[in-house]
Amino acid sequence: MYDRILAAVDGSGPSTRAYREALRLASDQHAALKVAHVIDLGVALAPWAEMAFINYDTMDAALRESGARILDAALAEARTAGIAAESVMLETDVDDPAAEILAEADRWGAGLIVMGTHGRHGLAHLILGSVAEGVIRRATVPVLLLRASDDAAPAA
Ligand code: AMP
Hints:
Elements: E1 4-8, H1 13-29, E2 32-40, H2 42-45, H3 47-51, H4 56-80, E3 86-92, H5 97-108, E4 112-116, H6 130-138, E5 143-146
Parallel strand pairs: 1-2, 1-4, 2-3, 4-5
Helix pairs in contact: 5-6
The protein binds adenosine monophosphate (AMP).
Adenosine monophosphate binds at residues 8-10, 12, 14-15, 18, 36-38, 97, 115-116, 118-122, 125, 129-132.
């Protein structure tokens, strides 16, 4: 039913839980799996960043390093499950990870997007996270959302 499944991960508990479901689905459907993480460079470009003495290069490097760790952990989990997943690191500088996830789904021809309902900014969006909301509002393919669960430990 699904040939290509795109899992959006941010290393949070709900994202990890969603990713595990993506692994199960990919195995069950014999689908290709791609895991995507978006780094938000907008944080370091914000007008207040200079006043807060945020160094752009340091922030850029930190975001890339943490993004790579999140993707590596996801790929390792896929390998353990016997699934040959691929990964992609995307960037936004306008604080819109959802747009990047949707663009990647479109480019790659994903038939399903899998993600959590909350992420690292979950407290600010208790009902439905902003990234999840942004994706489901604009997606042209089905989106599978998994909410937080007490037993889902963060991946990284
Ligand atoms: P949020 O809207 O931040 O609460 O996040 C909801 C879900 O969107 C998370 O559980 C992840 O599956 C996904 N997500 C959030 N931020 C990112 C990101 N930077 N890169 C990839 N996926 C993300």
